[in-house]
Amino acid sequence: MKKVLVVMTGGTIGSRSQGTAIDVDAAFGYELLRRYEEEYGKQAEFTVIQPFTLLSENLLPQDWTRLRRAVDESGPAGYDGIVITHGSDTLAYSAAAISYSFADSPIPILITASNYPLDDPRSEGVRNFAACIAMILHDPLPGVFVVFEDRKRTLVHLGTRIRQSQPFTDRIVSIHDEPFGEIEEGRLRLHPSPYNPEPAQLRRFEQRQSLELPAGASFGDILYLTPYPGFRYSYLKVRDMERKPHAVLIDLYHSGTTGVRFASPEDSLERFASECREAGIHLYAAPMNRQEGSLYASSHVFIDYGIQPLGGISVEAALVKLMFAYGIYADDQHTDQKAIENLLKQNLFFEIAAARQ
């Protein structure tokens, strides 16, 4: 019988409904295994760890370090697969962090969640967990994946490709709207696509590089901005900041653009970018389908301001990658910007997808 490490971190899939409140319950997390075995039988031998139990909106970057340490201390080489249960609110960020941390994993690491607590009849939590176990039993590709039901289809996404859960519908989608595959009748059916890697690429796990912060280091400080019509960069007084971020990430509109027209020079992106350069703060922008060729005029303008676009990557995966990069290569005395730029160019776990033509 195959051995599976189950890592419970809370979230809705580990929560209980109590009146009008939904909150995590560490003991209730085991209800998932009970319900799974009641419905599907004993398909695998489970070992359970709980590095933390919280609603995922309360997650902090240091929790990713706690999760990695807990998995490492459990001896992942002794298991055929790992299932991580997580909340859906910050799933895209954690999936990216776990993908970077375990990019060279020789076994499948499957992350799943639920939109409703297990004691709610609408919950898909047990079905999502069952799909994870089926993939470990029958189609154990190395790497990190997110498994989640979407309108009666159980989709499998690459861990670095998902966007935040969509409001109102709660859907999880991959960039290019191209999941890696889906679980049908207990088996993985791939979605062939020019944007997805082939199974042979996934099996070359020994060629991939995992990221780990140096001992005692913390994730880099990244200021993440989502501009909108009328956004005033003058609200961000760079010169007055007592603690300055290592870098700024600007969330772009779907066409790879951001506004470069402002009511006054004081509110402008140009001025903000100049102040950041003077303070040694680097600026990045994502998502962007392509970085060259036919770009909108406003895209050329912000690039001229010294803002570096990160092409082919979701803004969630870009943010977490920047947090790793500056955590590894920057401290209070020195920033190795060349090493950071080299890391950003690397495709650690398929986070950089080909441009859609």
UniProtKB/TrEMBL annotation:
Gene3D superfamilies: 3.40.50.40, L-asparaginase, N-terminal domain. One of its GO terms (biological process) is amino acid metabolic process. The active site is at 12, 12 (o-isoaspartyl threonine intermediate). It comes from the Bacteria. SUPFAM superfamilies: Glutaminase/Asparaginase (SSF53774). It holds the Pfam family Asparaginase. Residues 3-193 form the L-asparaginase N-terminal domain. One of its GO terms (molecular function) is asparaginase activity. Signal peptide: none annotated. Its EC number is 3.5.1.1. Belongs to the asparaginase 1 family. This is asparaginase.
